[in-house]
């Protein structure tokens, strides 16, 4: 059963529990906040897993634990691959070589867990559910999804302790700008990334490419999908797959990164 934590009084130097409760209610340092792509368009703020663990170690002096209350559960389904068509301003399906919509395996891993923190010799518990969406049917995709769901569960359990664990990031007004001031706009998500705007994204790619290229191995500064997103030029496997797609489709570029991945997976399945 979840126990409510005691109401803090004004902190005194010799009361560690009151110091902890006082610190838990201090405003969140926005320099800790990162941003990631939202399921639709735009980005949302979040705290990284290692940051939450570091904050817990610092606040509770390692007097906390995290336990899984269930085995990971996995759900899978076939998902249509789509891309955002700038001309008609909506998502449309990616068509395969046979003219039919392309699909890929998608899924979600979820797990239930509980944190326990110790204050004045008493244990306080908070439980929650973590989840992580994934695509593909490889062991690596499943492994990353299970690990991601456990990290999400840990963070959601700690979120119930308030400000220092990102509870305020669920306030829509705060979420709109949290993490933007310090440039926390890059993230990693199955090889994908984003920045605040397309111009900055292209500039970063161009700078990386200029540093890495020599006159004998020059590549175009930027390669673009039909949906306007850019190929990561320092990801050699993505560049290779992109060029292979163009060669197989008379110079036509893939509709999106998801479309390229579905096409590449289809080729592997035929071998």
Describe what you observe in this structure.
With 271 residues, the chain is α+β, with helices and mostly antiparallel strands. The chain has a domain at 195-271. The protein is built from 7 helices and 8 strands. The chain has helices spanning 16-24, 49-60, 139-159, 172-177, 198-212, 236-248, 257-270; strands at 34-37, 43-46, 64-68, 73-80, 82-85, 90-93, 103-119, 122-135. Strands 3, 4, 7 and 8 form a 4-stranded antiparallel sheet that branches. The longest helix has 21 residues, at 139-159. It is elongated and about 70 Å long. The model is unreliable at 10-14 and 184-219 (pLDDT under 50).
What's the N-to-C terminus distance? 53 Å
Q: Helix/strand-derived class?
A: alpha+beta
Number of strands: 8
Q: What's the helical proportion of residues?
A: 25-40%
Shape: elongated
Average pLDDT score: 79
Please tell me how large the radius of gyration is. Answer: 23 Å
Q: What's the main sheet like? A: 4 strands, antiparallel
Q: Give start-end ranges of low-pLDDT stretches.
A: 10-14, 184-219
Beta-strand level of the residues, as a percent range? 15-25%
Question: What is the number of helical segments per DSSP (H or I, 4+ residues)?
Answer: 7
- What order do the helices and strands follow? HEEHEEEEEEHHHHH
